[in-house]
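Predict structure. Chain length: 129.
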Amino acid sequence: MKDCNQCGKCCIKYGGGDLSASKEEIDQWEIFQPNLFQYVKNYEIWFDPETGSKFERCPFLEIVAKTDVLAPIKYTCSIYLNRPEDCRHYPSLISEMIKDECEMIGIKDIAKPKQAKMMLDLLMKDSRS
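Prediction complete.
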């Protein structure tokens, strides 16, 4: 299992409507993170605060400035410490990573999914509650 290389595939794929935030998270944002809460509409996330329309992808996904023109595009999350639990838990399954073409997974991981799952759980221990 490789470390995340910030390819953004997960955020691009799931950030356009497949993510949710719990009522508790949204209530916390309303009180402590109004800059996030403004993107909530009827307890659903990532709506344009000005138009009320749903974003096609997460508005907090940003492209990292390149230092080398030949380097691949990398992404970052501008709300990483306050991101929804859905984001914190991804990736959670090896099969999900394969389906999503996650670049963290390698051929050895596919051949030995139980070991890969143990490594994934270890890598993700700080993200998951």
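Summary: Helices lie at 9-14, 23-32, 34-37, 85-89, 94-99, 107-111, 113-123.
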